Amino acid sequence: MGSDRTMRRTGKRLLTTAFVVGLAAATAGCGTSKMTTGSISRAGGKSVDTMTSGELQGAAVSLGQSYARNPGDKPVAMKYAAVLQMNGDADQSLAVMRKLAIAYPKDREVLAAYGKALAANGQLEPALDAVRRAQTPEYPDWRLASAEGAILDQLGQKDEARQKYRKALELKPNEPSVLSNLGMSYVLDGDVRTAETYLRTAVAQPGADSRVRQNLALVVGLQGRFGEAEQIASQELSPEQAQANVAYLRSMLSQQNAWNQLKKEDKGKSATN
Length: 273
Fold this sequence. Notes:
Layout (H helix, E strand, L loop, with lengths): L1 H13 L27 E2 L2 E2 L5 H17 L4 H13 L3 H14 L4 H13 L3 H11 L7 H13 L3 H14 L4 H13 L3 H12 L6 H13 L3 H8 L5 H16 L1 H17 L1
Antiparallel strand pairs: 1-2
């Protein structure tokens, strides 16, 4: 069981907030590695999660100028927050979304995106509250159910999380982003084989996008199949980005010191429980 716990901790390191949170947007959890679910918000006609570092910086400047002229412009503010998040400016992204949530206190999309920003900053309980306030029992939204599941997963409440994903799938059958989240839930639990099954199902669905494929690449790489992972990743990213992702993953899994550190942390955690 030790190897399972180590895999689970490795997954958490790589995927701390790599879930779809909000209305088809996702948290970012791996810094500049881009091995994350990313965001499907678009700036300049290109998906945010496939932008290079230079493109992200350029988009941040352009959107920042538009945002400064009119902070209350909801689409601009949300895109700006998404780009900031992917660019590693999590605190600034949260500040933008907090201000927007004050301006739109009952807007479900804004509240959901605000919850995403809170989760990306590790403020999981406030994030859960924001997403639950956005949900309405009489007219439930599958995106919000999936978002709630993602946050519950990060809180370690896997059973409750998977109930939310399955509720989301009842509302939106075969939705690839929800299947992807469900798969990533099993990654955090150390069950990468089950995770791969869900992610392959997700990738096969119409509408599956880059973030779903990148999650599949990650899960394949976690099983040591780096060539296959790079092939999957390169379908969406430039060859350089795909190689960088796999190199990052390979280094995490192959460095003996990293494994030893993960094992020490796992033992320390177990001793305190």
